[in-house]
Amino acid sequence: MASVGSIQLGSIEQFCKAAELGSFTATAEFFGVTPAAVSRSISRLEQRLGVRLFSRTTRSVKVTNEGELFWKECQLALEQIAEAERAVTGAQIVPSGLLRISVSAAYGTHRLLPLMPRFTEAYPQIEIELSISDKIIDFVEEGFDLAIRLGIQRDSRLVAYKLEDAFLGVYATPEYLLKKGTPRTLNDLEAHDCIQYVSPNTGRPMIWLFQGEKGEEIEYPIRSRMRVLNDALGCIAWVNAGGGLYQTYNFAAADAVKRGDLVEVLHDHGGCARPFSILYPQNRHLSAKVRAFVDFLRSTLSVLPAQ
Q1: pLDDT of res. 156
Q2: I want to staple 195 with a disulfide (CB 3.0 to 4.6 A). Which of 60, 83, 113, 246 is the partner?
Q3: Could you report the per-residue pLDDT of 150-209, keeping only the tens digit for each?
Q4: Helices 24-31 and 9-21 meet at what angle, rounded to 10?
Q5: β-strand 126-132 against 97-103: which pairing, if any?
């Protein structure tokens, strides 16, 4: 493989645009050159790298798997070069471009999405693409700029900022409690329908957390015939339908509680929380769009009431 210096920046730019547009002809029109010139430029790039970046037919071109990976990394590199030029020339860096965010289901739906209109209004030049899923992502393979996940990350490859502690409560509908009774102690849970969430990353049910009489944290093993795989929002929907008890974050149940659709139980054992963090790769330059989002989220959450 050739050294970085031998790869012309123009070829990289043409490659990225061709990957974006899926057409050498459209790329040629964008740069004001001929389609043949674009094709030759990308062919030289493929020769230097020793891989095929596009699969070509008479009608279209399509990025290969290797090309997809190279495209994502080149986009980051071009963005860093552009920001370096702005920094040297003193030009104001306006956050812009596509920002790809991965966020877990409950946090994304009930905590992040209600805040997004403020962010998009403040930064009209940033495009947002949200992936709402509890599955752990690969930043490089999947091309995400950042992620929001449960827990404090110990991965040295990632930069992690704790966003907040999300407090937990056990909830049920008034109709369910009228039929089954209201639990007063942890032992009362044995007589109730408890809905369990099974994490896609561990394959195990999430442990319910409670506070003991002395304020100590208790991990309570729930035994249940009712389980939801991979989708925490499914558990919340089941509870809302009167299916049983479920421990979730207060912010996920807040609106239903205000409407009277859900009731929190076991208050004497409440007060436990789980932390949420925002993550991005350690070895990447923090772009203006990522920095804007991180700063926005940390500052916004810092003034919201704890939930």
Answers
A1: 66
A2: 246
A3: 887 676 677 888 899 999 999 999 999 999 999 999 999 999 999 999 988 888 899 999
A4: 130
A5: parallel
CB 85 within 8 A of CB 288: no
pTM here is 0.69
Read off the tokens for 8.
């012309």
Q: Which two tokens stand for residue 72?
A: 């994502």
CA-closest candidate to residue 223, choices 244, 250, 242: 244
Q: Which domains does the chain have, with CATH numbers?
A: 4-89 (1.10.10.10), 99-159+277-303 (3.40.190.10), 165-274 (3.40.190.10)
Using CB atoms within 10 A of its CB, is residue 239 exposed (0-12), middle (13-18) or buried (19+)? buried
Indicate if the pLDDT at residue 1 is higher than 50.
no
Question: Structure tokens of 238?
Answer: 């089941």
Tell me if 39 sits within 8 A of 87, measured CB to CB. Answer: no
